[in-house]
Design goal:
Helix content is 87%, strand content 0%. The chain is built from two helices and no strands. It has helices at residues 2-63, 69-113. Residues 18-111 form the Phasin domain. This is Phasin protein. InterPro entries: Phasin (IPR018968).
């Protein structure tokens, strides 16, 4: 009876160690995914900021050559329209990156916490 209890305790310890190992691997995978996404966010934001600085400088340079109030208004409206479009496009890119991170994180958790047959995505 004592040997059986000892074997059960050893098996339980092995199960706990396996669960802990899987949890650690999941956490590490999630952290790496987060760091990769944070890096992509930083690269994307830096490229976007550089683009907007350049576009703003070009637009402001064009404003110095304005000959009439209607031309000034037209240039200002064009500047605001292109700026709005740029910011919307950038927001959509960042939202897609965020969605990807959430999806990848969910898959990592599902892969480590659910039995193999439950890994399939719902239909």
């Amino acid at each position: 009876m004592a040997k059986s209890a000892s074997r059960s305790a050893t098996a339980a310890e092995a199960n706990v160690l396996q669960i802990n190992q899987e949890a650690l691997e999941t956490v590490l995978e999630l952290q790496m995914s987060f760091l990769e996404t944070a890096s992509r966010f930083a690269q994307e934001f830096t490229a976007f900021a550089a683009h907007r600085v350049e576009a703003n400088a070009e637009d402001f340079a064009r404003l110095t050559d304005v000959k009439s109030p209607p031309e000034l208004l037209q240039l200002q409206l064009e500047h605001m329209r292109t700026m709005f479009e740029d910011y919307m496009r950038e927001a959509n890119k960042l939202m897609a990156m965020t969605s990807s991170l959430v999806r990848e994180s969910g898959e990592a958790v599902r892969a480590s916490c659910l039995p193999a047959e439950a890994h399939r995505k719902p239909h």
